[in-house]
Design brief:
216 residues, alpha+beta, 5-stranded antiparallel β-sheet
Length: 216
Amino acid sequence: MVLRGESALLTAIIFIGVALVIGVAMLSYFTSIATYYRDQVDLSSHLQSEASNVFVNIISYDTASSSLWFLLKRTDGSRSSFFVIVDMGSEYSNCSNIYVSNPYHDQDGILCNSNNDCVQATPVYRGPMNGVYVPWEGVIVDFSSYAKTAGYTLSDTVYVCRLSNVCEFSGSQGLCSENTIVKIQLPSYAGVIRLYTVAIYSNKPYIVGIYEVTVS
């Protein structure tokens, strides 16, 4: 037998339990929303920082060897690596075609004329274009959609390559003030080359800069 007072108490406990469940659910929801927006703010800040702190300058194109040379520099003095995608006009370059000059191993003053004074780029992403992202008109879109709209090269496979910062070779500490010199070995038929600078956030690549040069 259940007394009236016990029945009222059970009812109150049930209502409190339901309220707690709803409260916990609402708290989890708003926490997830807050976490999402905080992550979006952090992402935006990181992409803006990479876009503004990576300086790119095309140096020259060697027609004899079909090699494009360019300079990379972090204006904030960071010793962090660089990340790039190279569009050769009809396909995207494999990272094995991209080299960073190591001046500390250069014995004759001629860049990348031996295996010791050039360091090959390493791949951090190899896969479909929709696995790379682009901030565009206030939203994040995949690279495939962006390239299709912009009339850029479409391909089944794209490579994001890590380039060592030249200051990584020196072994010194502190701010980096040196220029990183990069060589890209291109096919002889290359015409318009696009160099995309990339930022990595939560293990995902985001394009933050585009540089175009005609080499033919």
